[in-house]
Write a sequence for this structure.
């Protein structure tokens, strides 16, 4: 156990709103990395984009952060970090990774103890920070002029990527089709979701705007918050086009 590498998982996206699918990505990825025998996941971080993301149907960041916090009340290892959401401009994914890497260098999170009742202990080394995404995120690397090659390389070479499968996507094919991804495929981990989960935040926004039920698609506390604040209630709330910028699976 002492030889295992501590890992922190970072998911960037809109979280508009956060759904059960977003939460499952973390659980599936943690299981996958633990099963390799090489890693021990010690923390997950959800990083909502700022209001300057440029998406018409994006609710205010303080709402998205609040909903994420409510969704994570039952998790003892995933947290929401508001730093990205508080920035005065949209932040590229690689810059968010750099920020959190610096934070880990300054103050690494403690390792969870395997023995009940024992206090967590500090990790022996600075944890590795890996970007968590869905297969749809991986496909965006193929979109011309969307990503800078230098940023793609930094993400997969310096940090690493964990991609969770989604129906209709071919992550292995995306890796082989990209010279950069193929070169660093040893630092890209493909996790399979055993129970296919196609919950879409876009569908949830659309259903809410039409007065349809979305119960059991997102945590009850999040649904209560949405109703209390009257979010996603108009038809215009889901008709806005997505920004040309990509933040991955977290629509």
């Amino acid at each position: 156990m002492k030889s295992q590498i501590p890992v922190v998982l970072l998911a960037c996206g809109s979280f508009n709103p956060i759904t059960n699918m977003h939460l499952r990505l973390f659980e599936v990825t943690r299981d996958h990395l633990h099963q390799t025998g090489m890693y021990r996941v010690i923390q997950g971080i959800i990083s909502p984009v700022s209001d300057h993301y440029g998406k018409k149907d994006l609710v205010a960041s303080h709402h998205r952060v609040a909903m994420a916090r409510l969704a994570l009340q039952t998790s003892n290892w995933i947290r929401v970090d508001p730093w990205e959401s508080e920035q005065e401009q949209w932040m590229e994914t690689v810059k968010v990774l750099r920020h959190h890497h610096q934070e880990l260098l300054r103050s690494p999170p403690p390792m969870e103890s395997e023995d009940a009742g024992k206090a967590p202990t500090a990790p022996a080394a600075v944890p590795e920070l890996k970007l968590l995404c869905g297969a749809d995120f991986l496909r965006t690397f193929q979109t011309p002029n969307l990503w800078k090659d230098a940023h793609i390389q930094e993400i997969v070479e310096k940090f690493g990527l964990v991609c969770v499968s989604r129906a209709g996507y071919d992550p292995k094919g995306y890796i082989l089709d990209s010279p950069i991804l193929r070169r660093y495929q040893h630092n890209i981990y493909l996790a399979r979701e055993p129970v296919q989960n196609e919950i879409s935040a876009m569908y949830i926004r659309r259903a809410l705007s039409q007065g349809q039920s979305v119960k059991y698609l997102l945590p009850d506390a999040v649904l209560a918050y949405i109703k209390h604040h009257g979010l996603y209630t108009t038809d215009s709330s889901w008709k806005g086009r997505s920004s040309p910028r990509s933040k991955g699976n977290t629509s």
